[in-house]
Structures are given as C-alpha cells and as structure tokens.
From TrEMBL:
It comes from Saccharopolyspora montiporae. This is Enoyl-CoA hydratase family protein. PANTHER family: (7AS)-7A-METHYL-1,5-DIOXO-2,3,5,6,7,7A-HEXAHYDRO-1H-INDENE-CARBOXYL-COA HYDROLASE, ENOYL-COA HYDRATASE-RELATED. InterPro entries: ClpP/crotonase-like_dom_sf, Enoyl-CoA_hydra/iso. One of its GO terms (biological process) is fatty acid beta-oxidation. One of its GO terms (molecular function) is lyase activity. Keywords: Lipid metabolism, Lyase. SUPFAM superfamilies: ClpP/crotonase (SSF52096).
C-alpha cells in the first residue's frame, strides 16, 4: 500500500498509487504522494514521470471515512494541506508528468489529473467532482483545465462525470486505450519525451508553467477556504455522515 516508485533505465520514474479498496487517500497518503513526485523530479537522472494507480479506479479523492471519524478539524486541515501539496508537486515537477487514468477519477483525482502535463485514459475512465454532494468544494480549478467553462460548472453543480472519450474530444486526454494497454502507452510516451535533451525539456516545463494564465495554487487555496467554511457551519459533517452510513448520494 502507499505510493511505490519504479525507476526505468530510460530515466522514467513510474509512481504507482495503491490504497485499496478505491484509492481514496488519507491525509498521510496525499503527503506521501507529494513527496514521491517531488523526489522523482528532484533527481537529475529523471527525464519524465508516469503517475498511475492500481485497482479498478485511479483515484476516488480523499478518505471521507477518515474525516468523518475526526470530531474536530485536525484531519480536515491535514488533508487540505496534503491535497495542496500533492497537486502542487505534480504541477511543479521539473519534468513532464504523464498521468494514466483508469476507471474513476474523482475529487482529488481531478486535482492530480488537471495539474498533469499529459493524460492517457482507459476506455472506462470517468472524471468528475462529487464535492457538492459531500459538503465540500475544491478542484474546480483543475476541472477547468480539462473541460470548457460552462461544462465545468454543470459538472460541478450536478456531480456528474465526463467520459475519457469526451475529454479526448476536447483535447484534454491525449489517447484513450484499452485498460490492459494503459501503462505501456503511458511509458511509451514518457520514453519519447525522455529521449529528448533533458535540459531543454526541463526548461520547457518551466516555460509552460510560467505562461499559464491561471495561478493554480492560489486558485485552489481560495476554493479550500470555502470547504473549511462549510465544515465550520456543520453542513460538511452532515454530508459526510450521510455518505458513510449510505444514506447520501453515491
């Protein structure tokens, strides 16, 4: 369990998240992922990073049960910092991050996907933010990097998902492939990037981040403030309790 790191001879670092049963990460899981991405990018021999996951889905967001079990706000603060750190690590990784998504990519998974440089998805992949139904807000910043503005708002308000093929149509997903080809396809593309001059690629990543029209870190922190406000009001506690006991929406 956790985040495993595999280093290939080509200079590709393959990071695999494995938190059964659905890859809903606890607070320390987000921090562990942030550290793994940061360490991979800091290694001068790394030329590209592949971010993937084991199991039937890429990421189901935060561990709601961990938050529901905390009578205060300690875990909420920890998971907020953890998500922020993980999303930031992906965005600021000095080399391109190619993320391979299978099954569901929800909540915090959107933060990881939206801040990645390239997305490859399996045919069954779906992307969405169920935050409103969980009494939380956040990652609209990153969903807006995947879909057009008005669709982002529709998905955010309703909690609906969008398919990998739809994202491929928008150009957000580079390729949609059968699930059994997902890892190989991601590694193949990473290899193409890794074969180029590493100094040029690192400067290219820095340059692209520098011309980004949205400050993703500031924007996401703004969203997190509303999540904390909903927790202080008690709305989030009720939504999490409904989710844990099964009476809330799926």
């Amino acid at each position: 369990m956790g985040t495993q790191v595999e280093r290939l001879e080509s200079g590709i670092a393959v990071l695999t998240v494995d938190h059964p049963p659905v890859n809903a990460l606890p607070a320390n899981g987000w921090q562990e992922l942030a550290t793994a991405v940061g360490d991979a990018g800091a290694d001068p021999t790394t030329r590209a990073v592949v971010l993937r996951a084991e199991g039937r889905g890429f990421n189901a967001g935060v561990d709601i049960k961990e938050l529901a079990a905390d009578p205060g706000h300690t875990k909420l603060v920890e998971v907020n910092h953890g998500c922020y750190a993980a999303f930031r690590a992906v965005y600021e990784c000095p080399v391109p991050v190619i993320t391979a998504v299978q099954g569901f990519c929800l909540g915090g998974g959107i933060g990881l996907a939206g801040n990645s440089d390239v997305l490859i998805a399996s045919e069954d992949a779906e992307f969405g933010l169920p935050e409103v139904d969980r009494g939380a807000l956040g990652a609209a910043t990153h969903l807006a990097r995947l879909v057009p503005q008005h669709l982002m708002r529709t998905l955010f308000f309703t909690g609906r998902t969008v398919s990998a093929h739809q994202l491929e149509h928008f150009g957000s997903v580079w390729r949609v492939v059968p699930a059994d080809q997902l890892r190989a396809t991601a590694v193949e593309l990473a290899g193409e990037i890794a074969a180029k001059d590493p100094v040029v690629i690192r400067r290219a990543k820095e340059a692209l981040n520098g011309i980004d029209p949205v400050d993703v870190h500031r924007s996401y922190r703004f969203e997190q403030g509303f999540t904390f406000e909903l927790n202080l009001s008690g709305v989030a506690d009720r939504a999490r309790a409904e989710f844990v006991d099964g009476s809330g929406r799926a």
